[in-house]
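FAQ: What does a ligand-bound record look like?

Like this one, built around pyridoxal-5'-phosphate:
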Amino acid sequence: MRKEYLMTPGPTPIPPEVLISQARPIIHHRTPLYTEILVSVIEDLKYIFQTKNDVLIFASSGTGAMESAVVNLFSAGDKVIVASNGKFGDRFVKLTETYGLSVDKLEYEWEGVVDPDDIAHLLEGDAEIKGVFVVQSETSTGILNDVKSIGEIVKDHSAVLVVDSITGVGAVECKTDDWHLDVVMTGSQKGLMLPPGLACVSVSEKAWEAVERSTLPKFYFSYKKSREALHRDQPQNPFTPPVSLIVGLSEALKMMKKEGLENVIRRHAILAEATRKGVVAMGLRLFAPPEGRGNAVTSVKVPEGVEGGRIPKIMCDKYGVTIAGGQDRLKGKIFRIGHLGYFDRFDIITTLAALEMTLKELNYPVELGSGVSAAEKVFMENPL
Ligand SMILES: *Cc1c(COP(=O)(O)O)cnc(C)c1O
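The answer part, i.e. the structure of the complex:
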């Protein structure tokens, strides 16, 4: 027998309460009972997104939410800025180009943060820019971008700010309204502790004005249809929703509310700190720069002399601990430990222990227990 530990930044582990809630017999989605669940889910999502705006739900993975922002807010030929310092920023580039937007690419090294001043500079030079796209928590590198400062800049322009907070929401602060973030999105298999298949998007007043102007074709992902159904006397989804996921979401949000959003974020910060201290104590080097370290995923440089792909492989095959390798240009160069959602201290301890044994096997000079011990110190100094 072998236990499995899912330590990736999506999909993430699911609490037993949520799993059980999803095993209940299916209910019909045009009933008062479903409406009751949906209404409470939307209210709780507003709390998690820190917003009074509409929060819409779609049956898709996170990328569907990214695409929804493009097709609902813009028209072919619209000028937009896409800031990218990783794989998911690049996805916004591909998406906006696919729909014929005129894309001003702000591309950064993947080891650096997005500089808000660069966005300010571009916006000041061109009043025609209709939108700014940025990823808050770049899962491919673990880097956190400063969307608060970007929001402060974009709010004084006519452009709308679209934020991929798919591994941000529920792990780091993401104050949608206070920070003037117009469209914010997340996916179910990340901080929301659910299986994949659901995406949530908040839409500000300023973004709704952009929706009115947008002429790109949309049908299933129409924000207007979604909002109209939510605002009926008996709120609904326009099409058959993934009922079991909504029921699971209701349970997951209850858990998050009970813990309190601030405590959820604090827990993530402590888990991330322990992970960082742990890997550094093993003699490894962090990939993300100090000014851009998030709470959702810790990216670590593969030490010289070690074949990068072997670390996740041995950890998984031998110890049942699934972590993520590097993607695209970082393949074999980094590995990533996810700690987003349903995670507690011993998930980190287990992972660090498996990493130590794996490195030892790969002849990397690590002292067994060094990482675990550093993490334990963090946990003792910061009780959860
Ligand atoms: C997971 C993720 C996505 C969405 O990916 P899907 O596979 O479509 O769910 C988008 N952006 C970021 C930052 C992510 O972590």
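Follow-up question: can I read anything off the structure? Yes, for example: The two ends are 31 Å apart (CA to CA).
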